[in-house]
Design goal:
alpha+beta, 2 domains, Alpha-Beta Plaits
């Protein structure tokens, strides 16, 4: 059988050898400096050190924020853990810069001095997590469900480290060196180097058939950080020497490479090339909510455009935060006067039917208050349904949508069209997931467009 012409070809041997040479060149330079002490001169410039590492720390933190936003928006565990790796190193880099003697502080603090290796070790743990999170769908779901706890734990660890350093509590009570071959710090650096190396190998295996700029930059970043930690482990007491500056420079280069690669990606989906396959397409049990204004066309015909726009703005200003912030739904789209929202598209809301039904009731309640002030505005219909669906990436570079596709979605739309004015009509699958306290009137034998068999639906009054 011939080779599939659409499948990307793996990199050739020459390309792989070239990558290997590029990867080991910084480490070879570091070893040459160590072996020839005459090539390892001393240069101490505290202000350059402060500005350089504060800037890189801020850049790494901004990169972490951008990646974290993408991970939140798409529910991707790999990009989330990668953002945590960037954030941990960025924050500790900033602490290291702040602790530069003679700039903001008068003397050396041990915790600030060793902040870079410590931050790199934290980052290595998150990096290896991002590299291997695709080993189990359950693991990816767990990471996404605990994303806020992970961020809080990291920020708390950085805060504790900072306070511990300033109070000079043991073992941070005496000045020390960033690089130390025969110490706990050296052992930690060796562990971190192994974790970064494993992460780079795993990313290479995952993306080698379609090695775009961003995955390649992440691999390069991990390799450089691995080599930087090797520098920590073997440079000993050569603070401010060329070998010491080089492993610092490797860290700077690592984040500059990823930062520039991310900037070259499409702005709306900078980290899309790193998403897990389960982010691009996955099956979920979801609930969907459709809301529509009845008589909107007539209202538009009889009202000036400015009044229609003002009405829609007030309507959406109530609906969007109610659905997303109060009940945790995803507002998928506004279509003229209609709203589509989904629940549990990331698989982290087992009570999705309850959330969707409660959001629908609250939406009708809020809209009734708007109608009390504006009695000539259109009334609203709301339909809710639950069931199996596929969340799938649709589109390509320039426009990507993560659409929810399935019969449950289509049925939800049809139920909204059959809902009485000012009421919420839910499907039987949603009703069965509600608590026994739910009050609803059954509508058996409901015929909806596109369905051969009649449905049983329920007009929901309360939960």
């Amino acid at each position: 059988m011939g080779r599939d012409a659409t499948r990307p070809r793996p990199p050739g041997l020459v390309v792989r050898i070239g990558w290997g040479l590029v990867a080991v060149l910084p480490l070879a330079g570091l070893l040459s400096l160590l072996l020839r002490s005459s090539l390892d001169p001393n240069w101490d410039d505290y202000r350059v050190h402060f500005v350089l590492f504060l800037a890189v720390g801020v850049a790494a933190s901004l990169l972490a924020y951008a990646a974290g936003e993408a991970a939140e928006r798409r529910g991707d565990a790999r990009v989330l853990l990668l953002s945590m790796a960037f954030l941990s190193t960025g924050l500790f880099l900033a602490l290291h810069a702040i602790g530069t003697p003679g700039v903001l502080v008068s003397h050396e603090f041990a915790g600030f001095t060793v902040a870079i290796p410590v931050g790199l070790l934290f980052g290595a743990v998150f990096a290896v997590g991002s590299a291997f999170v695709d080993a189990s769908p359950a693991l990816a779901r767990l990471v996404i469900s605990r994303r806020r706890s992970l961020r809080v734990a990291l920020l708390a660890a950085v805060a504790v480290w900072c306070v511990w350093t300033l109070l000079a509590w043991p073992p941070l009570s005496h000045p020390t060196s960033e690089g130390s071959a025969l110490s706990l710090l050296g052992a930690m650096a060796a562990v971190g180097a192994l974790l970064y190396a494993a992460s780079a190998v795993r990313y290479w295996r995952a993306y080698r058939l379609d090695l775009g700029l961003l995955p390649a930059s992440v691999i390069g970043c991990f390799v450089l950080l691995c080599e930087a930690l090797i520098g920590v482990a073997i440079t000993g007491e050569r603070t401010w020497h060329a070998s010491w500056w080089e492993w610092h420079g490797l860290i700077v280069t690592a984040y500059v490479v990823v930062f520039l690669a991310a900037r070259r990606e499409w702005r709306d989906e900078r980290f899309r090339r790193l998403y897990l396959p389960t982010t691009r397409e996955r099956g979920e049990q979801i609930s969907v909510l459709f809301a529509d204004l009845a008589g909107f066309t007539t209202f538009t015909e009889q009202s000036p455009p400015e009044r229609v726009a003002a009405m829609l703005q007030e309507y959406y200003a109530v609906a969007a935060p109610l659905i997303s912030k109060r009940f945790g739904g995803e507002v998928e789209k506004f279509i003229g006067d209609a709203i589509m929202a989904t629940f549990n598209t990331r698989g982290n809301q087992p009570d999705h039917a309850m959330r969707a039904a409660a959001a629908a009731l609250a939406l009708q309640e809020q809209h009734a208050r708007l109608l009390a002030d504006h009695p000539d505005w259109p009334a609203m219909r709301v339909g809710v349904n639950s069931g199996d669906a596929v969340v799938r990436e649709l589109g390509g570079h320039g426009y990507v949508a993560y659409a929810v596709v399935g019969d449950a979605v289509n049925t939800g739309s049809r139920l909204e069209g059959q809902a009485p004015l000012g009421c919420v009509l839910i499907g039987s699958a949603t009703y069965q997931r509600l608590p026994s306290t739910a009050v609803a009137d059954a509508l058996p034998g409901l015929q909806v467009k596109g369905k051969e068999q009649a449905l049983t639906a329920y007009v929901l009054h309360s939960i």
